[in-house]
Amino acid sequence: MDELIKLSNSTLGQLRIEHPRYDRSALTPGIVHIGVGNFHRAHQAWYLHRLMQAGKAQDWAILGAGVRPYDAAMREKLLAQNCLTTLIELDHEDTSAEVVGSMIGYLPIVDGNGPLIAAMADPAVRIVSLTVTESGYYLDAVTKGFDASHPDIRHDAANPDTPRTAFGAMVAALRRRRDAGLDPFAGLSCDNLQGNGAILRQTVVSLARLSDPELADWIERNTTFPNSMVDCIAPATGPTEMALVHDFGIDDAAPVTHEAYRQWVIEDSFCAGRPNWDEVGATFSGDVHAYETMKIRILNAGHQVLANVGEVIGIETISACMAHPQIAAMFRKVQADEITATVDPVPGMTPLAYLDLIETRFSNPRIVDTTRRVAFDGSARHTGFVLPILRDQLAAGRSVKGLALVEALWARMCEGTREDATEIDPNDPLWADLTRAAREARTRPAAWLEQHRFYGDLAHDRQFSEAFAAWLQLIWAEGCETALKRYAAGDKLSQHAAITG
Fold first, then answer.
1. Where is the Mannitol dehydrogenase C-terminal domain (predicted)?
2. Are strands 263-266 and 228-231 parallel, antiparallel or unpaired?
3. How far apart are CA 108 and CA 115, in angstroms?
4. Tens of pLDDT along 474-493?
5. DSSP state at residue 429
């Protein structure tokens, strides 16, 4: 192999793949993005890069940011290559790549978040966007209201000028802008939350109200928080992904692989202007809710349908789960019978057509998306993605047999061992609590549902609780594959049948 080309501004002209044709030295920042992971670089940064390739949006470049110590490693990698990223697109057969250059800096990560606050207070910054995971918005697990009791929130309320959280930093920057007579920026959540803009507004305004009620009122009156739906599978980067970027002759310390699919639907509510992302494939819509319901319920909940059972029986990737006959049959049945029943069509797409698309995407063996990554933070993902579907099914008087099986498989995974007796490493911020409940539930299934911060009153719903108990007992008595076969065959199930087989 020829010597690799170190990715940097000075070497772009040596690359054999598509790369920025715009003058990156002439770009000026308009967006601060908090949470610079693979998804952001494959998705939002790509849309902006495409506009820049067309000679547009030159004053909307991205400044990356983070608020946790572990973000420093990514900052170091990206700054060493002028914040450029190689994106490698993997469809079922072909591989292509391009270098994206819409990010021009990465702010220092320090206690108190001074550089981040200063950057967001700059009037040139008109959007602050975030990908901080579904569990990062300080929500009460049951009510979905603001959790003012969290230690991070209490810290930021008591120390508003030296906050610990991204939201505290946003509040501090908005305070500076208000005090200087400047307009606010728009807050744009790009996380997989239903009504993510409304949730971001709730977190920012509620936190501001704890220390400065007048500022909270100013934010409510003047700042906008558009809802958005984002979609692109971008797995974690490991040795396989590093080998792929080397195949293109590039030395990139942080390449990103992604599927040959993207979608971004955004509410057009930006108080300080926005790039014309719709010119490069994004959709501005007044009904983001319908799009995000389809995506969150069929794709994100669907990920949980696959990943937990995959972990328990030792299947390492989502595509391998889809290649497993019993898992694939269970996935199709719970989706077609229960999940899609709670989803309305959107322009150009019915729920069942979207399910077909998701099955194709999940089956792509070249997207090495691990069951471990997808199963991470199940306490947030089941409560955010799966349980709302289950509640809607119960409210409509429809079956929850498949969803009860999904929850039983999550409980089985959280016990902490696979069926081959190997250990499942902790994979949730609440892993110790989940494992304790899962182990008690092995002999008393109700112990799992008594985790009221997740299930609330669902523990008292007879239809769900009895189905859950029966599935969990069957899983422990005869294994996951027996349970999957029984479900796919439509067998009747009782707790007695689960115990005796």
1. 287-475
2. antiparallel
3. 6
4. 999 999 999 999 999 987 76
5. T
Cα(62)–Cα(84) distance, integer angstroms: 11
User: By C-alpha distance, which of 386, 44, 465 is closest to 194?
Assistant: 386
Q: Is the pTM of this model over 0.70?
A: yes
Q: Count CA atoms within 13 Å of residue 376 on its CB side.
A: 10
* Residue 15 CB contacts under 8 Å (≥ 6 apart), including other chains: 5, 99, 248, 249, 250
SS3 content of the chain, % helix, strand, coil (to 5): 50, 10, 35
Helices (H), 248-286: none
Three-state SS letters, 371-421: HHHHHCCHHHHHHHHHHHHHHHHHHCCCCCHHHHHHHHHHHHHHCCECCCC
Which three-class secondary structure state does DSSP give residue 231? strand
Token pair for 308: 């937990």
pLDDT tens figures, 253-263: 999 999 999 99
CATH 3.40.50.720 domain range(s) in the chain: 5-286
Q: Please report the DSSP string for 120-174 in residue order.
A: HHSTT--EEEE---GGGG-B-TTT-SB-TTSHHHHHHHH-TTS-SSHHHHHHHHH
CATH class entry, domain 289-500: mainly alpha
Four-residue CA torsion sign, 144, 146, 147, 151: positive
Q: Would you state the pLDDT for residue 496? A: 43
Q: Contact at 8 Å (CB) between 300 and 369?
A: no
Residues of the chain with CATH 1.10.1040.10: 289-500
What does the alpha-carbon distance between residue 357 and residue 351 come to, in Å, rounded to a whole number?
A: 10
CATH number of 5-286: 3.40.50.720
Q: What's the rounded Cα separation, in Å, for the pair 437 and 432? A: 9
- Euclidean distance between CA atoms 266 and 244, whole angstroms: 32
- In this structure, what token pair is assigned to residue 138? 């300080």
- 470 backbone φψ class: left, alpha, beta (φ>0; ψ -120 to 50): alpha
